[in-house]
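Practice problem 4.
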């Protein structure tokens, strides 16, 4: 979707997660556990863990729940062993998709993801089929009412951001993944309220979905895949015109 509707989608997802907190907590706990297992339980020395913990706190997760997830990852507490997998796929209209999962049963998860794709006019792709379209970037969203664009640009670029964009009702600050936390910390130190922040995959090209049926099918597909407990993140390179996106809600 366009920048404006991308932010609308983020707000919609936040509202949905507030209504179904147990599901979002379950996914974040998995992420913390795996990240602690891979890089250690020190949030200062493990930037990916720090990002996962920030996500947990944004979802109002209690500190003791976060601590238990870290200890399960480091082996201090017994826990389930999760495997990190990325599936490449195609959605309606040839839209490229990257689906990140954490699972304790690869066979079950791939069958479930394949089934959802099939129901919504999509299919799994071969390894490498769409990964080249995406690159990992940090994104920080700041609402326009919070700060003037020139001041935000000055703060963000000085802290190491790559770009600041006006995308409708918000500004988007883009960073290299390694610079994300430094830029986020600099903005927070300057008392700039951050509406949303994440490190994720950003497509280099987008496919316009101007047909209402394809656009609706694409949105239903993403929602259905995100509903799977093993799926952590879904990224796609679709671009739905503002008017159509508003109509589809």
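Answer key:
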């Amino acid at each position: 979707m366009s920048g404006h509707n991308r932010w609308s989608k983020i707000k919609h997802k936040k509202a949905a997660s507030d209504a179904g907190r147990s599901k979002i907590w379950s996914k974040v706990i998995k992420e913390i556990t795996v990240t602690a297992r891979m890089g250690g339980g020190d949030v200062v020395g493990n930037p990916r863990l720090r990002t996962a913990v920030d996500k947990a706190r944004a979802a109002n997760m209690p500190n003791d729940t976060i601590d238990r997830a870290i200890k399960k990852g480091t082996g201090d507490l017994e826990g389930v062993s999760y495997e990190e997998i990325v599936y490449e796929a195609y959605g309606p209209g040839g839209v490229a998709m990257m689906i990140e999962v954490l699972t304790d049963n690869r066979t079950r998860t791939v069958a479930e993801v394949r089934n959802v794709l099939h129901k919504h006019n999509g299919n799994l792709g071969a390894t490498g089929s769409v990964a080249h379209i995406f690159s990992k970037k940090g994104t920080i969203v700041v609402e326009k009412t919070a700060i003037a664009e020139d001041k935000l640009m000055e703060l963000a670029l000085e802290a190491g951001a790559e770009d600041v964009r006006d995308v409708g009702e918000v500004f988007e600050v883009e960073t290299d993944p390694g610079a994300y936390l430094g830029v986020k910390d600099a903005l927070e130190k300057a008392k700039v309220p951050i509406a949303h922040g994440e490190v994720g995959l950003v497509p280099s090209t987008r496919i316009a979905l101007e047909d209402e049926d394809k656009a609706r099918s694409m949105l239903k597909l993403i929602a259905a895949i995100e509903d799977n407990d093993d799926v952590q993140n879904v990224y796609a390179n679709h671009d739905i015109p503002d008017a159509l996106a508003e109509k589809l809600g």
